[in-house]
Amino acid sequence: MDFVDPTSVWGREGVVRAESGLISSLALPKDAFTVLVEIGLPRKSDFFIAEQPKLVEMAFRPGRFCRVGTDEFNAVSVDTSNGEVLLLSGSGAQPDRFINSTLRDFVDFLGRVTLGRREFRGLTKREADASVAALKRQLLDRDPRAFADEENWWSVIFEQMEDRLL
To answer: Could you please report the per-residue DSSP string of 53-114?
Structure first.
């Protein structure tokens, strides 16, 4: 499957990469390490703010999660045991949410949703609804677990997009 190159969405200056030496001690799965060092994360997207190269292990769950950014409120983190991307609240005020099966999927989803939202501008309500539905189907084919539960992060994002809250 093709992958959305982050620099084609956010530009070279809009993508941050980690220095391999800074994150080599975090015991990240190889795929997550490769994404952080070679592909990079968007510095800021519609739903995400990168914290690179300041990757840190989660203070309240040391040794298992590596925070790569936020959704402005909660930590977007990679589970070092399996590479899954999760939203961790830390406070318990909100539930932790599954985001994607891999960091590569997360970056790809962010890119596709960002490009899709740019295309939605100027569309009629009917056209926009059809575009959101088509994008959701496309993403569902790429990482079905992202939508497997209505409380998963992407499920919530798409519900808000469908309701025109985003």
So the answer is: T--EE-TTSTTTEEEEEESSSSEEEEETTT--EEEE-SSSSS--EEEESSHHHHHHHHHHHH
- Please give the chain's pLDDT, 166 residues, in tens: 589 999 999 999 999 998 888 888 888 899 999 999 999 999 999 888 887 544 555 555 666 888 899 988 888 999 999 999 999 986 667 788 999 999 999 999 999 999 999 988 888 889 999 999 999 999 999 999 999 999 999 999 999 988 877 7
Note if the bond before 53 is cis, omega within 30 degrees. Answer: yes
| Helices 103-120 + 125-142 axis angle, to 10 | 170
Q: State pTM to two decimals.
A: 0.90
Domain count for the chain, please give it: 1
For residue 60, give its domain range: 1-166
Distances (CA, A) of 50 to 56, 75, 110, 112, 163: 12, 10, 12, 17, 27
Question: In angstroms, rounded to a whole number, what is the distance separating the alpha carbons of residues 138 and 130?
Answer: 12
Fill in the amino acid letter for 46: D
> Among 103, 110, 81, which residue's Cα sits nearest to residue 31?
103
Name beta bridge partners: 88.
75
